[in-house]
From TrEMBL:
Coiled-coil parts of chain: none
PROSITE patterns associated with the record: ABC_TM1F, ABC_TRANSPORTER_1, ABC_TRANSPORTER_2
Signal peptide: none
Keyword Transmembrane helix (UniProt): yes
Protein name (record): ABC transporter ATP-binding protein
Topology within the bilayer: Multi-pass membrane protein
Pfam family, one: ABC_tran
InterPro entries, per the entry: AAA+_ATPase (IPR003593), ABC1_TM_dom (IPR011527), ABC1_TM_sf (IPR036640), ABC_transporter-like_ATP-bd (IPR003439), ABC_transporter-like_CS (IPR017871), P-loop_NTPase (IPR027417), Type_1_exporter (IPR039421)
Gene3D superfamilies noted in UniProt: ABC transporter type 1, transmembrane domain (1.20.1560.10), P-loop containing nucleotide triphosphate hydrolases (3.40.50.300)
Keyword Nucleotide-binding: yes
GO CC annotation, single: plasma membrane
Keyword vocabulary terms for this entry: ATP-binding, Membrane, Nucleotide-binding, Transmembrane, Transmembrane helix
Amino acid sequence: MKIIKNVKNYIFLYIHSFSLFWKASRGSSTILLFLIPIQALAPAALIKIAQIMLDNLLHGNVPNSLLAYWGIIFFISSAAIPINTSLQGILTDKLIAFVNIELMKKSKSINGLTLFENPSFYDNLQLVSSEASWRPVNLIVFGISMIRELITIISMLFLLGRYNPWIAIILILSIIPQSLVSYHIQQDSFETMVTRSPDARKIQYYSQALLTAKDAKEVRLFGMFDFFIKEYIKVYKGMHFKMKKVRLKQMWISLVFLGISVSLSIASLVWMIIVIEQGKASTGGFLVFVSTLTATTDGVYSSIENSSLLYDTLLYMQKYFDFMNVKETNTYSGELSFPSNVKNISFDKVSFKYPGQKNNALTNISFTITSGERIAIVGENGSGKSTLVKLLMRFYAPQQGTIELNRTSITKFNIQQYRKKFGAVFQDYSKFYLPLRESIGLGNPELMSNKEKIINAMKDGGFFESFIEKGLNLNTILGKQFNGGIDLSGGQWQKVAISKSFMANSQILILDEPTASLDPRSEFEIYQSFIKLTKNKTVFFITHRLSAVKLADKVLVLKGGKINGFAPHCELIKKNKYYADLYNLQAKSFQSN
């Protein structure tokens, strides 16, 4: 029963995977489906016509019609080869693009970050995305080859069966155990590859640490080469040992079945020689028998190899379909439109812990702010500052309590509309290696072609001065990843990120350490821009530089994931010892410097 179930699953997965061909390119798929039987049946037809011609030749006469038939079939089958190759190439390109676009669309549909905290999900994501550029090639090459070879084998077995049905039956029966063993080994190989996925990511990380410009300075200064090379070799040896066992097992079993296949072929050939000696078959019949026996044996071995390699690809496709079908545990089904005016935002007894963690990142958080207030969030590292704004932006959902906007749970608002009303500069801001226009315009893609808006955003974000000094234009590519690109300093990259946030027409602005990479002068200028440009907007800004808190209407003090204080700076400095100690400690540091 298990074997039957596995066969059913294989067939279902095979059909499901091949449906992607049709979705990627109906035209190429249709022509390929037409060419497959032509190429597959041509060998049997050519062998049969050759038999008839040989028998006629022995009697002194070969009809011209037979030569014409043979020539036409040979020409069509030969012409199908370059056509098939070209179409497979076209379909491969389209299928790779289709699969990658579907992966990107699926990523777009994942609204939160919870799934990315799941190691199993992340490993599958890395496997699916890293192999999406070549797995579809195998699906086409091995999938089409297997169909073609299967049709060819059936036609050859039909010819063999006319001489002795038992030979055809025995050859068919010999395929079954070899196929099952081959699939089992291929599954072991794939599972070994999947289980080593974390190790594969490790060795990739070790090699990239020594090969990328980002880490080049520290690697050379501290002499890290030997360490990373040693770690790479250690992990590689463990991976190689597992795969070596699987591959050697595959080799020995293949040799055993190859021996059985060759023995059956020799026995069949001996039988045919006896039949010829007894005068029960013609010379042409002997030609057909030897040709079909050889073609069948080669076809069987090739089809088993291709189908097992296809099975390996289908196991990948199962991972792909699993990823495409994954569902978020947190629902983002709210349909309410975002209000035209934000009157208030409140956290009510909110507690949250990250997936797989024992301790809460935030515990019993409650506070309310009104529209247009600037809220500074301060606290030591690990106090939950960034977590709080991630909950507000709905990247995660709290396990307890509610977050409300205008006295309505934020989960009831349409997620796309909701996030459009937020602008943000993250501490770990993204660097997009794109033309400057796009790098900043991504803050509001609808205005990406508006040169004036982008220039103004650069001025507000503090990047315009660098723009002029470096002689850049809006088509200058940022980063050295592509030809013609220019590199930026850490502070300049942060100014690009800040400029991007000013492109957004946001009611709520999140600033997570927005000036961490800036010098004091740039920091002062940026904060002046924030004051001017965020008038009538609600602003949350996380900062370790407590001198900036004076710009805030209120300060939210977090300690160990709990609220330690929430009041204006002048009140906290007098009444909250923890906050006063933090502030005075930093003030003394500046004074001593």
